[in-house]
Amino acid sequence: MTRWLAWRREPVLIQSAVLALLNLLATFEVVPLTVTQIGAANAAVAAVLGLITRQAVTPVTPSTAGSGDESGRRRAPGLG
């Protein structure tokens, strides 16, 4: 359970670190990729990690406590 604690607290930070690591590996030619391949890999990894991150940060149920309207959102003061 604790090994996923970092993912639950900072999913976007981990996503950025993974993308940065992939770019560094390509930049220093640890993995031989062309510029086009690097761009395609970035797009694919960002899309997959974005979907995973979205699942981690999206609330499961709307917060309706004390809202007073049907949408579950609170109104800003003075806009009532």
- The low-confidence parts are none
Class per helix and strand makeup: mainly alpha
Rough outline: elongated
Task: State the helical fraction.
Answer: 55-70%
The end-to-end distance, rounded to whole angstroms, is 43 Å
Largest sheet: none
Strand tally is 0
Order of helices and strands: HHH
Brief summary:
The chain is mainly α and 80 residues long.
SSE order and pairing:
Blueprint: H1 5-9, H2 11-27, H3 35-57
Task: Describe the 3D structure.
- With 80 residues, the chain is mainly alpha-helical.
- 56% of the residues lie in helices and 0% in strands.
- The chain has 3 helices and no strands.
- Helix 2 packs antiparallel against helix 3 (35-57).
- The termini are far apart.
